[in-house]
Write a structure and sequence with these properties.
about 400 residues; alpha+beta; Aminopeptidase; Alpha-Beta Plaits; eight-stranded mixed beta sheet; 10 helices
């Protein structure tokens, strides 16, 4: 398992932050750098049928070592890290959690505190991997990559563990919603798969948000404020008015579990022109559509109040709840739960408050639940992952491969 940690730290040091403003695939060159590194490493450990295409999609095969006719299964993780926080010059470090605050950066007084993040109390006495507090760590999802490759390496080194054919893939740009845009489902040819892209120890996720992105552009009218009466239309104030008409309780900071939300993701403007971006999320399709309809009605109301074409709304669905596609083959969730239990872990089936490549892949014909990597506090300077949880993730992947025979 020392190789597991070494792999992860090596991957984490490569800046693979994705960029939604880029028109290329992958959106950033660091992802291709990591992809090529993985190709070379998979050749070294003995995987076969290794490919990398011009878009940075990596695939490989572990051939079966049993004569039984068993389905091809897959494991996937993504190359990129979140654009929401710095991922250049990542400096991972291994610390032992002694039950008190962990100093990530003494100079800047950045502390991973049990008061602020009580989940770390679950790992007292264990080794944790963190960043130095100035960047994210990148366990989302380089931990998943390291765990999959380590599991394949283990299976190759232990032929007494019988398994069927296994396909693995690493995708670019998952964090900006493009992870499956150019994924060749036929070339992957697995019957079902698992994304290794979840959080804490024992998590299984087969339900995720239905998701839409809404862009609102408001055209105001600017005149001198001294003579503005009955003339000026301040687009920023109209944006504030729009936001105040949304349910105040339905925002990320006030919701949990299956509760959906409107997330004000970006706002920039002047008196003359303001642009607002929202993320709309809900597990229930009926409630998801109600949220979208509400935003449409608010925009219509504001156009009646301030004049036609004052507010322009562009709304695009991003992905849907994979539950609909996974439930008909629920045995793949049962198989994952059995594998987790076999390693002395209590399985926790929870809804994803976000999305994964698995959501889109499920609708493309590849049922694809999501399993834990072991990490916490993704997309932030306080991200950490326990070494023992990473080891358990590897064991679970191996067990799933064994149970599939």
């Amino acid at each position: 398992m020392d190789k597991l940690v070494e792999r992860f730290i090596r991957y984490a040091r490569i800046n693979t932050q994705s960029d939604e403003n880029s028109g290329t695939c992958p959106s950033t060159p660091g992802q291709l750098k990591l992809a090529q590194m993985l190709v070379d490493e998979m050749k070294e450990i003995g995987l076969q049928d290794i490919t990398i295409d011009e878009n940075g999609y990596v695939m490989a095969t572990l051939p079966p070592n049993t004569a039984k006719e068993v389905p091809v299964i897959g494991f996937l993780a993504h190359l990129d890290t979140s654009p929401d926080f710095r991922s250049d010059n990542v400096n991972p470090k291994i610390v032992e959690h002694l039950g008190k605050g962990i100093v990530l950066n003494k100079k800047e007084n950045i502390i991973l505190s049990p008061m602020e993040f009580p989940v770390i109390n679950n790992y007292i006495g264990q080794q944790l991997i963190t960043s130095d507090g100035t960047t994210l760590l990148g366990a989302d999802d380089k931990a998943g990559i390291a765990e999959i490759i380590t599991a394949m390496d283990h299976l190759i080194r232990h032929p007494e563990i019988k398994h069927g054919p296994i396909r693995i893939a690493f995708t670019p740009d998952e964090e900006i919603g493009r992870g499956t845009d150019k994924f060749d489902i036929n070339r992957f040819y697995a019957r079902y798969a698992y994304t290794i892209d979840g959080g804490g120890l024992g998590e299984i996720e087969y339900e995720n948000f239905n998701a839409a992105r809404a862009k609102v552009v408001i055209q105001g009218l600017n005149v001198h404020p001294g003579t503005a009466k009955n003339k000026m239309k301040n687009s920023m104030l109209i944006a504030v008015e729009l936001n105040n008409m949304l349910p105040a309780s339905e925002v990320p900071e006030h919701t949990e579990a299956y509760e959906g939300f409107f997330h004000l993701a970006d706002l920039s403007g002047t008196v003359e022109n303001t642009a607002v971006n929202y993320l709309i999320r809900d597990h229930d399709m009926k409630n998801f559509n109600k949220k979208k309809d509400l935003l449409i009605r608010i925009v219509d109301h504001l156009n009646l109040k301030y004049g036609a074409r004052t507010v322009k709304l562009t709304m695009v669905d991003q992905y849907y709840n994979m539950k609909e596609k996974v439930e008909p083959v629920f045995e793949i969730v049962v198989q994952a739960r059995k594998a987790i239990q076999s390693r002395g872990i209590t399985p926790r089936i929870i809804p994803v408050r976000g999305g994964t490549d698995g959501a889109k892949l499920s609708y493309m014909g590849l049922p694809c639940p999501n399993l834990f990597t072991g990490g916490h506090n993704f997309h932030s300077r306080y991200e950490f992952i326990p070494v023992k949880s990473m080891e358990k993730a590897v064991e679970v992947i191996v067990k799933i491969a064994e149970y599939a025979v």
